[in-house]
Amino acid sequence: MVYEFPGPEAPIRQGDIFTRLPRIEFSLARFQAISEHDEIEVIPWDELAGSREPVAAIVAARPVVAIVVSQDCDALRAPDITLSEIREFRDVERKGKDTTEPKSWMRIITQQARINQKWFYLPPDDGIGFQTKMAVDFMVTLCVPRSELAGMRHLRKGRLNEAAGAHFRERIAEFYRRYPFDEWYPLDEAEFEAYKREHPDAQPFPWQARSTEDSD
């Protein structure tokens, strides 16, 4: 499909897919710090944030599949490498929850991929270990030491091929330069009223408020 499989000595590159990397999870409100007497203190992080020294702590580490988003030059030289988590497509894009027909999948994979910049589609492939449709979730990242990840290249399952890699680079750029805005702002009163029926959480701008008052 869209994957290739570099040898174990090949340097880490953007688009490399790793399995079983640790995603660290913890609570800022109930941070589990280890005191100098090796006792566990459950304490809000802001009470520790002023410390100039590293704080020993207990955190949860969940193994995940992830893809390198750092650029090739950073993957070769930077102290840390950034990756985004890969999950089942149905869990990343809600439009895929109940999709079964090839025609519907085609529309999501092609058309929706142009609209939703928060994910990148990855097709199933036995060689890479994906038994179902997957997606890169750009909203979920993890950071690992570059030198240590290089020492665990046996966890690399493969990487995106040239065509998919070029698309992946552009998707990353689109995600980070996207401009957040309320898409309904240019609608007139009648158009906003129709929009609100499908998106009840949308709040009107001053020039749309009268339509909301009239509908009440």
Give the helices and strands, then pairings.
Layout: E1 3-4, E2 16-25, E3 31-34, E4 40-43, E5 60-68, H1 72-77, E6 80-88, H2 89-92, H3 102-115, E7 119-122, E8 134-145, H4 146-150, E9 156-160, H5 162-177, H6 189-198, H7 209-215
Helix pairs in contact: 6-7
What features would you describe in this structure?
There is one protein chain. The longest helix is centred in the C-terminal third of the chain and has 16 residues, at 162-177. The protein is α+β, with helices and mostly antiparallel strands. It has helices spanning 72-77, 89-92, 102-115, 146-150, 162-177, 189-198, 209-215; strands at residues 3-4, 16-25, 31-34, 40-43, 60-68, 80-88, 119-122, 134-145, 156-160. 29% of the residues lie in helices and 27% in strands. The protein contains seven helices and nine strands. The strands form two sheets. The chain has a seven-stranded antiparallel beta sheet with strand order 1-9-2-5-6-8-7. Strands 3-4 form a two-stranded antiparallel ribbon. The chain has two domains: 3-180, SH3 type barrels (Roll), CATH 2.30.30.110; 184-216, no CATH class.
